[in-house]
Amino acid sequence: MSVIAPDEKADFLAILARHRIDASDFLVQEAGESDVVDDVYPLQGHVTIVRRSTLKEREYRIGHGTAWVAMFEKDLNKGAFG
Description:
globular
């Protein structure tokens, strides 16, 4: 089961389209975790985004209450992916 919600994936792809970057240039590697809090199992994890053409990568926390897509766009705007 993916921790990345479908709307987050769509937002990620929309960001790439706005920046006119081919989505195939990015590799999305997801690793999930489950932390038990008061008998609730929130889905959390990390996603590593790698730009294939530059081999630059960043890791973001994903899951309930995170804003990894917005953080990705900020990093992209700053040139973190080359």
